[in-house]
Amino acid sequence: METLLWLCNWSTLLVCAALKLPQISAVLGARSSRGISLPSLLLELAGFLVFLRYQCYYEYPLLTYLEYPIIIAQDLILLLCVFHFNGDVRRAAPYIITCVSAWFILTLQQWILDLAMQE
Predict the structure, then answer these.
(1) pLDDT-based confidence at residue 119 (cuts at 50, 70, 90)
(2) d(CA 72, CA 100)
(3) Can you tell me the distance from the alpha carbon of 119 to that of 16, in angstroms, rounded to the nearest whole number?
(4) CA-to-CA distance for 24 and 78, rounded, in angstroms?
(5) What are the distances in angstroms from CA 20 to CA 1, 109, 118?
(6) Tag placement on the chain: N or C end, fewer CB within 10 Å?
(7) 95, 41 Cβ separation under 8 angstroms
(8) What's the angle, vertex CA 71, arms to CA 78 and CA 50, rounded to 5?
(9) What b-and-e string marks burial along 12-34, b requiring 16 or more CB atoms within 10 Å of the CB?
(10) More confident residue, 16 or 97
């Protein structure tokens, strides 16, 4: 049974490692971010960041959320591609600063993080 759990954990990580790669390669191949919704990408990124911070804050085992840093890294690459092909990578800076700031603000008080995780 333990082998099955190990296999499931690592297969999930492998799938997550390749989750956004087709989208990133399509954007790079087309040299255009047409069809990528910036608001939906930012919403997805925010959700992943909040969940990852929640898991870290409450010290859950690493293997229960290891796929989220992988997905977040791919989302950040996709975000930079969107701004690059829209002509101004510097416009990504406020979004990245907001994400980094939110990472720290979420844990200033426990209630902030709990509120962010409400349904």
Answers:
(1) low
(2) 12
(3) 24
(4) 6
(5) 30, 33, 27
(6) C
(7) no
(8) 105
(9) eeeebeeebeebbeebeeeeebe
(10) 97
How many angstroms separate the CA atoms of 19 and 13, rounded?
Answer: 10
* 96 pLDDT more than 90: no
* Separation of alpha carbons 35 and 52, rounded Å: 27
**Letter for the amino acid at 42?**
L
What tens digit of pLDDT does each residue of 66-88 get?
A: 889 999 999 999 999 999 998 88
**Helix and strand element counts for the chain (H, E):** 6, 0
Q: Which of 60, 104, 80, 64 is nearest to 113 (CA)?
A: 104
Rounded CA-CA distance 15/12 in Å is 5
Can you give the pTM of this predicted structure? 0.84
Residue found by looking up tokens 């087709």 in the block: 22
The torsion of the CA quartet 80, 77, 45, 94, rounded to 10 degrees, works out to -30
DSSP string, 30-58: HT--TT--HHHHHHHHHHHHHHHHHHHHT
